[in-house]
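Private note to self, pasted from the team thread so I don't lose it. Backbone tokens:
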């Protein structure tokens, strides 16, 4: 039975990523604990997607709650224009210390997609400030996804993403395939040479293209993208909103390829899933292009809740946990369990692929199967798993117990087996 607030409340809500006319009613969540979501009717669901991959330490971690509560009592918010505060300054310093390469400055926003918007604005204005105003286009990749705001949509795949309706609205960018072979890398290099005078940079999701279908590429392909981009003087932008903080294995996906971005975008697990926060990290070279006696050369961007102290406190607490607790080892264990638990799906009819990287496991199905319709079946199994497109995927909290993860992979095997009959 749903609580009193449910019926009238749901009639006032516009839910995300669904056709409201036909979508099933959302479930009423009343509490979270560890890796579980508690529903109003008393059921507990083991969360297989960590609230869109953000709740990396599980729900209600005492250290996160304690630090946010402490900050709440002191200063919940203060504008960041002309003021700074300890939580933001500490967080910026800590992020620069662990980020790949030699990044020098941090610009805070309030989510992942705005962090990408800031990166794109930085890149375009970088060239304008240097006297090259015509460099205002980006190279992005097939199956890529960088967020739901207009600029982020423009560098997402215009044909295969959920943003097809906006193809004629957003700026036209150059969409190419990930260069996975030597021949493809030569084509990519030639493409950059042909269009270089109009390009501001190249943006990629390192190792894992997330909401575009959980598609993987190897470190060699990533290294080639970075090397060919920077050899031509273009800015290399790494969107690690989904892959950062060990989701794809290493602390940052760029680390596996040994590449250093000019601009790095972070979000999701940055705060441990407690509050929204985005960060755009830039190199000294990028930052220096904005230093001028001309006020017009400044980066004119400033979200109202930029560097919110509560969110920064959550992020600092999250970094504490990454330092104190064995997340890398836990991810290695998750990867092994995902491989063992999902591999049996490979032989089923209608299964196109099974792939695992870090704390991400994917079963890709025949496109003719209506994958979103499987969601209620997972709930009936006691699992919170949200398939989309043509994939069923798991991206659980990094602290998930092996028995809970085995429960999730077993649920995937059962539901997929019924779906492909």
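Design output:
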């Amino acid at each position: 039975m749903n609580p009193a607030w449910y019926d009238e409340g749901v009639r006032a809500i516009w839910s995300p990523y669904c056709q409201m006319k036909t979508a099933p009613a959302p479930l009423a969540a009343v509490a979270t604990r560890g890796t579980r979501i508690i529903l109003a009717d008393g059921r507990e669901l083991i969360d297989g997607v960590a609230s869109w991959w953000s709740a990396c330490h599980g729900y209600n971690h005492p250290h996160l709650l304690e630090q946010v509560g402490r900050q709440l009592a002191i200063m919940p918010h203060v504008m960041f224009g002309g003021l700074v505060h300890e939580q933001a300054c500490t967080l910026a310093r800590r992020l620069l210390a662990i980020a790949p390469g030699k990044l020098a400055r941090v610009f805070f926003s309030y989510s992942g997609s705005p962090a990408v918007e800031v990166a794109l604005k930085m890149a375009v204005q970088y060239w304008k400030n240097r006297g090259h105003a015509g460099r205002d286009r980006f190279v992005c990749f097939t199956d890529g996804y960088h967020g739901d705001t207009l600029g982020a949509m423009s560098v997402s795949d215009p044909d295969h993403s959920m943003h097809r309706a906006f193809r004629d609205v957003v700026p036209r960018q150059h969409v190419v395939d990930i260069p996975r072979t030597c021949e493809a890398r030569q084509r990519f290099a030639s493409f950059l040479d042909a269009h270089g005078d109009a390009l501001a940079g190249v943006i990629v999701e390192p190792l894992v293209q997330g909401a575009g279908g959980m598609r993987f590429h190897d470190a060699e392909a990533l290294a080639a993208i970075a090397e060919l981009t920077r050899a031509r003087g273009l800015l290399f932008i790494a969107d690690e909103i989904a892959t950062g903080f060990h989701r794809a294995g290493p602390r940052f996906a760029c680390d596996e390829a040994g590449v250093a971005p000019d601009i790095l975008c972070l979000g999701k697990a940055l705060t441990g899933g407690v509050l929204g926060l985005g960060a755009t990290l830039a190199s000294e070279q990028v930052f220096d292009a904005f230093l001028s006696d001309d006020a017009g050369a400044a980066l004119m961007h400033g979200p109202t809740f930029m560097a919110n102290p509560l969110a920064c406190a959550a992020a600092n607490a999250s970094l504490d946990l990454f330092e104190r607790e064995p997340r890398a080892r836990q991810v290695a264990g998750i990867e092994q369990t995902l491989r063992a638990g999902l591999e049996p799906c490979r032989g089923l009819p209608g299964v196109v692929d099974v792939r695992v990287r870090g704390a991400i496991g994917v079963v890709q199905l025949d496109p003719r199967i209506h994958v979103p319709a499987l969601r209620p079946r997972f709930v009936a199994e006691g699992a919170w798993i949200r398939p989309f497109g043509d994939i069923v995927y798991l991206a659980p909290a990094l602290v998930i117990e092996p028995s809970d993860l085995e429960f999730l992979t077993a649920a995937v095997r059962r539901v997929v087996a019924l779906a492909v009959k």
